[in-house]
Design brief:
Order of helices and strands: HEHEHHEHEHHHHHHHHEHEHE
Number of domains: 2
CATH class of the largest domain: Alpha Beta
CATH architecture of the largest domain: 3-Layer(aba) Sandwich
Helix content: 40-55%
Mean pLDDT: 92
Number of strands: 7
Amino acid sequence: MDKGYHIPVLLNECIESLNLKPEGKYIDCTLGEAGHSSKIYSKLSKEGILLSIDQDISAINFVKEKFAKELSEGNWIIKKGNFEKITQLTNEAGIKSVDGILMDLGLSSRQLEEKGRGFSYKNAEESLDMRMDNEMGVTALDLVKVLNATELEKLFRIYGEERFAKRIAIEIKRNDIQTVGDLTSLIYRVVPATSRREDSHHPARRVFQALRIAVNDEINVLKRGLDSAYELLNKGGRLVIITFHSLEDREVKRFFDDKSEKNNSKIFEVILPSTSEVEENNRSRSAKLRVLEK
């Protein structure tokens, strides 16, 4: 396995939850490295169609090279774009409705480890970028520079659920932050040692999450994407979503509950990764798989 290769989370559970029909039409809203997409495609006949979407051009280029043979067959279509524009992208692909839609809301290993992206707090020398689409204008560094301490505190508290948001925000404005290392070092100084010992995660994790969500407008994008995705589903079609933190999971749960109440859509039991999957792939530990049938 090549370095940095992304292990798809809850792969078999996703495939089973989609209830794939060989001649069906499906959308993977988050192509990544095609871990889920390639498995979905392998289950389809020549009459089936898969549309895979991603806003990260480096991910798309990687997949186009890796799966050139499969893509040449014509029924696996890749589109660059954000899944909030799923209706437009689906129309461009000549698809009116689908039998299943998958959203994996996590970052891929390649995004975390690719140089220059600034997603990982392990790459100390990198600039604070964090844009999923590098054609976007605002970076995480821009937010750190432009927002005042009160605004940063609110951002860290709402999107990162960070207990020490105020302390961190104040110190950021007192220091010249340029790189990932500048920010992680500052957070390490500010967060009390007792809290660092109690939490098994890196102390910068919540602040990085908050900045990434803000830069990419992830919660609002998710809300718009959920509405559009549901409308594209055929009757009996399924919306399958993997979440990784409480903010996005609450939004998905709220949406599913609303559709269940108003439209009598069926909600399936939440699926968590097995102990063996977490041992093999630590990034799956916080994953939740939610499934809704229209």
